[in-house]
């Protein structure tokens, strides 16, 4: 009896066909898959997979599948619809086109159901608003009101305490401001007194010169008094400089000393009139004090030379560090522009049909007075064109929704009996629209593949 060695149990990798990425893809994904098979056939599923992977219309929630996954999904769709899969090997095969039309009809039905649900929701909300206006829901509103009033009362209680606490810092700030103003006024008064004291002393001393002294004694007295006035002025200026923390350069002090000596020599010369001497002495003292103040004031601080350069560099950095636009955003904008051009071309071709005058503009009251009552959402080809240009219609589903609404309104109001009826023309318009959409999607697939 032969003995065989058993290898350890290893996980067996199943084929890709047993791993469908999406168990039940959405209706839009099914429609795109069927259209891709119509364009390429089932002979080469690798090309079909590449075309669908590069498509911008593929819904994100559907995910991506392998070529075997797409093949399995297509076979499931064909079996559900009772169609033959073997007859779809060549492009534009009849079973594949029939599947596309069936999926189109299903998509239109779902869109119609969504529109009806929105109408029902709108009617419910309008009825609720009417009940609130009539006062039928006052009890329910009153039951919900106490919770709101209690929260409002809590906020009202917290309000006064917050306001009182806010008032305290304000009052403290106002008191501090008043103290600062009082101190500033006191300093200004002290400076004014220090500036006016030399002049008053000079006037008093000048007034005392009216006594009956001799000319020589008067001259000697004036010289001594002028020296005392200069000393007082110098002391006052030094005090001011010490308080302000500003000094005078050595060269400027030497020049001022020389000027003072020259002025003293001129003042020591015999002059007539003691009053004039007192006045001139006070004037010269005031001039010297003003000069020293001007000299002691430091020049305005000029900005450093590198400040402007730094600002310019910062601006340059800001300009150079701007983030470039991502390529994905550029691709999205380009795709949106291509769709807008394609949608506009489709509407223009619909307007070129012989029966398009029925759908060119909205129905007026003069033509059909009850149209706006029977049709809740009227639309026309002009409205669709405006929506495409404004960006309100940017996807294939949105364009299909509006064109389907246009055709459904026409059939609902006019019926489809007779080849010359508006409803029959609406059916022709929808068939023409389907063919144009097939051509547009095929062009998009070809462009994506290239």
From TrEMBL:
Residues 178-194, 223-233, 240-267 have a biased composition (Acidic residues). It holds the Pfam family Bromodomain. Keywords: Bromodomain. It comes from the Eukaryota. Residues 351-421 form the Bromo domain. Residues 200-218 have a biased composition (Basic residues). Residues 141-336 are annotated as: Disordered. InterPro entries: Bromodomain, Bromodomain-like_sf. One of its GO terms (biological process) is chromatin organization. One of its GO terms (cellular component) is NuA4 histone acetyltransferase complex. Residues 141-156 have a biased composition (Low complexity). This is Bromodomain-containing protein. It comes from Rhodotorula toruloides (strain NP11) (Yeast).
